[in-house]
C-alpha cells in the first residue's frame, strides 16, 4: 500500500474522490470536473479536467488508462493511453479523451471517464555498447512474430 496525497481543486469540490469500485480493482476511477456537458463528435478529442492534483511518492507514477466500458459501448478512449502522471507533477490531472465511435458522445459532470493505476517506476542506467546479443527474433520489427503460431506465421511479414 502506497500513500498518495490528493488535493481537491475548487471546481471538483463536490465530486466523489477517486475510488476502487471493487476489492480487486487495479484502477481508481477519475471523474469529469466540468461545468457544462461537453459533446464529443466522432473523431474529436478534448481535454477533460478531473478537479484533482496529487503528490505521488518518488519511485511511483500514475497511469491514466481508458475505461473498458466506454471503449466498448461508445468507442471513447484515452488518446495518449496510458497517460503518465509523474511524481514531481503538481498540476491538475486531466484526461485526453477521443471519440473513435460513430455517434456523438456527451461527457457530463461527474462521469467516470478514465482510471488511474498507481505503479512503481524503475529508472534505468543506460550503457552504450558496440553490439547487442543475438536472439531468435533479431531485429524483426512490428508484426514480425505474426498473428498466430509464431515467427512469420502464415507467411506474413
TrEMBL record:
Pathway assignment: Pyrimidine metabolism; dUMP biosynthesis; dUMP from dCTP (dUTP route): step 2/2
CDD domains: trimeric_dUTPase (cd07557)
Top EC class, one word: hydrolase
Pfam families per record: dUTPase
Enzyme Commission no: 3.6.1.23
Catalytic activity of the protein: dUTP + H2O = dUMP + diphosphate + H(+)
UniProt KW Transferase keyword: no
The keyword Magnesium belongs to this UniProt entry's keyword annotation: yes
Binding site for substrate: 67-69, 80, 84-86
Domain dUTPase-like: 16-146
Region (Disordered), start-end ranges: 138-157
Keywords, sorted A to Z: Hydrolase, Magnesium, Metal-binding, Nucleotide metabolism
Family affiliation: Belongs to the dUTPase family.
Its biological purpose: This enzyme is involved in nucleotide metabolism: it produces dUMP, the immediate precursor of thymidine nucleotides and it decreases the intracellular concentration of dUTP so that uracil cannot be incorporated into DNA.
Name of the protein described by the UniProt record: Deoxyuridine 5'-triphosphate nucleotidohydrolase
Protein's organism: Bosea robiniae
Amino acid at each position: 500500500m502506497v500513500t498518495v496525497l490528493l488535493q481537491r481543486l475548487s471546481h471538483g469540490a463536490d465530486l466523489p474522490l477517486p475510488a476502487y469500485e471493487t476489492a480487486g480493482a487495479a484502477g481508481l476511477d477519475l471523474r469529469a470536473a466540468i461545468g457544462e456537458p461537453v459533446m464529443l463528435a466522432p473523431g474529436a478529442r478534448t481535454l477533460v479536467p478531473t478537479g484533482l492534483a496529487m503528490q505521488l511518492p518518488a519511485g511511483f507514477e500514475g497511469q491514466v488508462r481508458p475505461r473498458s466500458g466506454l471503449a466498448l459501448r461508445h468507442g471513447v478512449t484515452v488518446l495518449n493511453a496510458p497517460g503518465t502522471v509523474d511524481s514531481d507533477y503538481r498540476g491538475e490531472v486531466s484526461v485526453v479523451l477521443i471519440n473513435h465511435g460513430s455517434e456523438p458522445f456527451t461527457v457530463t459532470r461527474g462521469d467516470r471517464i478514465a482510471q488511474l493505476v498507481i505503479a512503481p517506476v524503475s529508472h534505468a542506467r543506460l550503457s552504450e555498447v558496440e553490439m547487442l546479443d543475438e536472439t531468435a527474433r533479431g531485429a524483426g520489427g512490428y508484426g514480425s512474430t505474426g498473428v498466430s503460431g509464431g515467427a512469420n506465421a502464415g507467411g506474413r511479414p
